[in-house]
Amino acid sequence: MKRVSGLLVAVALQCAFTRTSYASNPIDTSDEERSIIGGRDAPISSYPFALMLLVDGRLVCTASVIGEFYALTAAHCLDSKVITSPKSQISFLGGSSDRSSIGTIFTASYYVLHEKYNSCTIDNDVAVVGVTTSFFTNSAIKPIPLQDDEPAASTSCYAVGWGYLTIPPNYIPAQMLQVANYTLQTTQNSFRSHQQLRNATSSMDCAAISSAQYVLE
């Protein structure tokens, strides 16, 4: 698998803790079953951009379709701790809510980590992956709308992905795609809870659900 160095030109909000994809203007999911931490089961038809990122056939992260041949994910999903061999096979499974069901497999041709990604602080935790076949060969897959402006504090957003149903140390992975609604917090509020956050930096945004806070890129 080819890794390309350089500055990413497309950036979207990603969550380092739950490994999920974020967007503003939450979809009403009040009738869906609650299961993930602060979340609930979600149909892929409501979030057609969501992809499972596979490394050697193993689900490691969630990604978002941002173009016909491009997906966005977290850089920590593709750093040297995950990609331990140049022969590692990176692919995506799209068009399915269930991690065990049949969807469409897309093979990655290269990936680019943000040039300022820091694996220690998880700063600039974003990567773009190119695929060999158009995502749109599956009509159920659509790109996520990208924002032109930085979301303001108190903005409502949502997270989707196949994250964990429980907090550490008892990790239980979600079988079905999950969605959760969050509210972005100010940097000041984020640092107020710094000890509860992992390596929070001034370049990170923070989102809250109930009394819990998570660091977001």
Automatic annotation (TrEMBL):
<dbReference type="InterPro" id="IPR043504">
    <property type="entry name" value="Peptidase_S1_PA_chymotrypsin"/>
</dbReference>
<dbReference type="InterPro" id="IPR001254">
    <property type="entry name" value="Trypsin_dom"/>
</dbReference>
<protein>
    <submittedName>
        <fullName>Uncharacterized protein</fullName>
    </submittedName>
</protein>
<keyword id="KW-0720">Serine protease</keyword>
<keyword id="KW-0378">Hydrolase</keyword>
<dbReference type="Pfam" id="PF00089">
    <property type="entry name" value="Trypsin"/>
</dbReference>
<dbReference type="InterPro" id="IPR009003">
    <property type="entry name" value="Peptidase_S1_PA"/>
</dbReference>
<dbReference type="InterPro" id="IPR050430">
    <property type="entry name" value="Peptidase_S1"/>
</dbReference>
<keyword id="KW-0645">Protease</keyword>
<keyword id="KW-1015">Disulfide bond</keyword>
<dbReference type="InterPro" id="IPR018114">
    <property type="entry name" value="TRYPSIN_HIS"/>
</dbReference>
<dbReference type="GO" id="GO:0006508">
    <property type="term" value="P:proteolysis"/>
</dbReference>
<comment type="similarity">
    <text>Belongs to the peptidase S1 family. CLIP subfamily.</text>
</comment>
<dbReference type="GO" id="GO:0004252">
    <property type="term" value="F:serine-type endopeptidase activity"/>
</dbReference>
